[in-house]
Specification:
Elements (H helix, E strand, L loop, with lengths): L5 H24 L7 E9 L5 E9 L5 E10 L2 E11 L4 E9 L4 E9 L5 E10 L2 E11 L17
Antiparallel strand pairs: 1-2, 1-8, 2-3, 3-4, 4-5, 5-6, 6-7, 7-8
Amino acid sequence: MRRLDSGSGTRVAALGIALLAGTVAALAQTTPYDFTGHWTGSATQTGKSPVTLAADFTTGTVPKTFTGTLSSTSADGTTTCTAKGRQKRHQKVKILLKPCDDGSHILLSGKLDTTAQPTITGHFARVEKGKVKRGTFTLARGASPSGAFLDDPERSAP
């Protein structure tokens, strides 16, 4: 005759509670971040000089998404791209720059750091004419342009 073991039922219930608690903790980690604003930084392609980056993002239509434009300035000139970004789990961020006015497509993959000054740091892959070129980048939420703090004379430019 079979004997019922009530211990296994207790273990299953405990496992269910642990999974639920883990799911709640995971959801708390992916709280949508507001990427709206001006971001500046630099990118360095392997074997090339650094370029200056400037981006303007706005909140997307779906939570955890954002859109905007990103411009890179180098000795060769300025390239502007349309940006579509998404915040992933564990503060990871993916930004697709497509199309760019030079015909390239770029994918930025980075990690968002929201401590003191929000920054996105990571690597990129640039595809132009079928060739992939890689490098690293950093974007930081930029300070407001000079004179933007008209209501606070201590913060505005002289």
